[in-house]
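step=encode ok
step=design start
structure_in=
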């Protein structure tokens, strides 16, 4: 019986991901254990190389790699051949620097990444969604379309899962497992559980939001409600990766 270990929005924080997988009981040598990433595996954090090695070493039949908007950003930067402001803001430049081991010449770094076979292997393995009997694994949310399976997935990867879910854009009799949007938002807005962000966010963004008064009690746990499981722990701020373990036949 397959056991699914689901993570999301790791953002190149390898150690935090491994800690979460270890706690959940993931064994890379166990043939029944399947690693699931809901996208945004890279950008922002320090360990893109370790993360890429880990994922590529897993057999194809033991990993499910959902494409996130940050995978799109990497592909866009490589295709364009230079960085734009949003690449620096989103940390795409960090991933390309780390994977190329070039930090002083953007053009050379991008050209080296274009030829990086390990990165090509990863990006080629990414899919828009994965569907089981009771679950649909996505990054942001499903496309807004009656035929969502064939909808605009690149646009859907940017959707806020909580707002889409609250509007009733769901799949009857299934649970959508999503990332992209920090779970503290859902816990705060829909479960009245703590503020939206923590103290570290306040320190970083105080100049932009001087009137925002938040505490350090934001909840970044997995958000669970009817038809939704949200996973993004905002790792760059919380230094936590959520890991969902699904193993009962009725779960999958």
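sequence_out=
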């Amino acid at each position: 019986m397959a056991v699914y270990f689901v993570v999301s929005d790791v953002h190149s924080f390898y150690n935090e991901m491994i800690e979460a997988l270890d706690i959940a009981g993931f064994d890379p040598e166990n043939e029944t254990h399947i690693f699931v990433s809901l996208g945004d595996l890279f950008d922002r954090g320090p360990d893109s190389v370790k993360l890429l090695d880990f994922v590529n070493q897993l057999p194809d039949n033991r990993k499910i790699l959902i494409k996130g908007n940050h995978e799109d950003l990497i592909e866009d930067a490589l295709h364009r051949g230079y960085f734009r402001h949003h690449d620096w803001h989103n940390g795409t430049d960090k991933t390309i620097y780390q994977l190329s081991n070039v930090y002083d010449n953007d053009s050379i770094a991008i050209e080296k990444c274009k030829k990086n076979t390990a990165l090509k292997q990863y990006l080629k393995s990414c899919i828009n969604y994965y569907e089981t009997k009771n679950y649909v694994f996505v990054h942001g949310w499903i496309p807004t379309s009656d035929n969502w399976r064939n909808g605009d997935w690149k646009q859907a990867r940017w959707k806020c899962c909580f707002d889409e879910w609250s509007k009733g854009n769901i799949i009857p009799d299934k649970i959508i497992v999503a990332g992209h949007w920090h779970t503290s938002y859902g816990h705060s807005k829909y479960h009245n559980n703590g503020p939206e962000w923590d103290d570290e966010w306040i320190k970083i963004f105080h100049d932009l939001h001087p009137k925002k008064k938040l505490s350090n009690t934001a909840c970044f746990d997995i958000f669970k409600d009817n038809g939704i499981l949200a996973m993004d722990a905002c790792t760059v701020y919380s230094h936590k990766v959520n890991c969902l373990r699904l193993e009962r036949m009725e779960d999958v």
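step=design ok
step=annotate ok -> The chain has twelve helices and nine strands.
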